[in-house]
Amino acid sequence: MDVFASLSKSDDVIVCVGMHTTGEPTRIVLRGIDHLLTGERLLDKRDSAKRDHDHLRKRIMFEPRGHSEMYGAILVRETELTRAGEAHIGVLFCHNEGYSTSEQIKYDSSRLVSFLSVPSFVTAADLLVQVPEEYRWLELCDRTSVVLNLAYGGAFYAILPAVELGFRNGLRGAALDRLSFAAAQLKALLMRHHPDLTHHPTEPSLSYLYGVVLTDNDCAAEETGLCFFANQYAIGARVALAFAKGHLKRNVPKRYHSIVSLSASQPEQDAFVGEVVEEVEVEGGEGIASKGVVVKTSGRAFYTETNTFIAEKDDHLSSSGFEVSLPRL
């Protein structure tokens, strides 16, 4: 009996391939979800996925098919830009907590992948933020504030050097769990006390802080960054910030390393590349967020696996996946 062939005939099959782009792994959904989504715009289909088909996201992100750090990309073949010939395909990015950004992508080949961001903009530059006692972390020592930046690049990110959080050597030699805790504390503080900094002028569903990016300019000639939340690489937001501060000019590519690409045998080939290709007015934006940029992000991509996911009829435990955690009191 050919079990694989038999299971693959199920109506509930979700077909995926695994890829990494400069070391960032992603589970890419080729078939099984796209045809279920309704709406004219990509953001409408994102709402449809969240509202009507979230069990499928959980199925491919959670245990036993995934894990807490899993990151996914659902390919959407028809969007407002694909119909207009301005994009090859749409993508809904997802993770263990839900859906993050959506992008419209043009690609050159399966090795060099590039996409143009939605308008990216800065909402706060060099902002002094007070850190109340309940949000403090050990490395902050006796300091009571940090200086950070807030920028949008498909999602909102807080961006600041690791040394600003009290890690004296930046990302070098720092314990990952300590960096993660400090970033989580900072994110909780910003979400609770500074929600105005992540207000999206036209899409209320995107008005939240997605992640914290810790940077380090001493690890390499290019800027190195570590993004805390679902491994999403925040190139659009970082390029928009560099441009707004006058550190980067239009049509000048800049390499951005992750801690993975930095340790590669040929790091100059495995970094992400960000480039401002257009300056735009942000619809509904005010103040510093009234002007933005369109960012071209590029990186080398390679296949790592193929997967066919199914859910058997009586498998109630894993049909929507599950998270491994202790019961709450």
TrEMBL record:
It is an enzyme of class 4 (lyase). SUPFAM superfamilies: Diaminopimelate epimerase-like (SSF54506). Its EC number is 4.2.1.77. Pfam families: Pro_racemase. It catalyses: trans-3-hydroxy-L-proline = 1-pyrroline-2-carboxylate + H2O. One of its GO terms (molecular function) is trans-L-3-hydroxyproline dehydratase activity. Belongs to the proline racemase family. This is trans-L-3-hydroxyproline dehydratase. It comes from Rhodotorula paludigena. The lineage of its organism: Eukaryota, Fungi, Dikarya, Basidiomycota, Pucciniomycotina.
